């Protein structure tokens, strides 16, 4: 039986690098975002998670779908799959880590091994499209 973890992520690429964050106590970096709460739309999840993690507000009118990816969930038993619905979007405010994030950084394609399998699929597509150096 497959267990699905449903997540939404914010794809922010600047100067050929993508914004990634390492949650408190974790050993890998993730694309900012997180799990959907009951009844939330993708947009609601995106706005809430990004504000919780990086203290900025996503501009709802700027949000566009970047792709949806599925892969084995990092650190979970076989058969646990994460689905990551990814969105581009502009933001207002200053990027700052919150209490649940230990570190944020900008990764190039060379940093791909530092993110989990589902994020690596996004890295591959961004590299193929020329967005990620």
TrEMBL record:
**Its domain of life?**
Bacteria
Q: Please tell me whether the keyword Lyase is annotated for this protein.
A: no
Could you list this entry's UniProt keywords, alphabetically sorted: Hydrolase
InterPro entries the UniProt entry points to:
NUDIX_hydrolase-like_dom_sf, NUDIX_hydrolase_CS, NUDIX_hydrolase_dom
Domain Nudix hydrolase residues, every copy: 1-128
Q: What is this protein called?
A: 8-oxo-dGTP pyrophosphatase MutT (NUDIX family)
Q: Which organism is it from?
A: Streptomyces clavifer
